[in-house]
Amino acid sequence: MPEDIRYETDGGIATITIDRPDVHNAFRRETILELNEALREAAGDDGVYVVVLTGAEGGFCAGADVTEMPDWSEEMTEEEYAGYLWAVQNVVRQLRGMEKPSVAAVGGPAVGAGCDFALACDLRVIGPDGFLREGFVRVGLVPGDGGSWLLPRLIGESKAKEYLLTGNDITPEDAVDLGLAVDVADDPVERATELADDLLELPALAVRRTNALVDPEQSFEEYCERAIAYQWECVNDPEHAEAIAAFGEGREPEFERDYS
């Protein structure tokens, strides 16, 4: 039974909650292991169509729990530290690699790796008390969990460097202005779930393949080749046929699905 993570499914939506509110949902080693397992479960569950990632009591994730951090240089070898950091990076790796869309509900601090977890999601909703902070430089570290790769691709190199090199906060209003957040909401989990519900109303295969096609690393020709393959899958998808029929008949589509 997980101690640091709550994993709940309802009507095709998996909600993963980092549940350590006494430390603003900062993570320890066990949290990372449980978070990776929850993401694997969501990715492999055919009854899950959208993932919502959030933190307990209206928060998100304040990065690593410094009260449980060892003295890395004294207690671990470089190889051991690499293994630990790989596991943290794998949360980002899984979120980035999962074709099922993910929505981050950021109600509180999203700091360091917690910021990177939010950036790795496909969509973000932020609350009035939420903020994003790549604060690694302020404690003498580099963004080891994906931030220096993710942020420039989301908001451009120059603006990303402003936040990466200063460690300054990205406020809710700035997050929306920069295109990082869909919305500022008093209840970001509720708003994130509304977005998830909107996605559930669409043909699932088309949503997943569209999500996979958004890849800034591929060339245009690579994109075109993948698009042909994905489009052929979608053409033969029963949900495509139902969506076309519903459009022609002036009604909402009715997809036959087994939700978790």
From TrEMBL:
Q: Which organism is it from?
A: Natrinema salsiterrestre
Which named protein is this? Enoyl-CoA hydratase-related protein
**InterPro entries for the chain:** ClpP/crotonase-like_dom_sf, Enoyl-CoA_hydra/iso
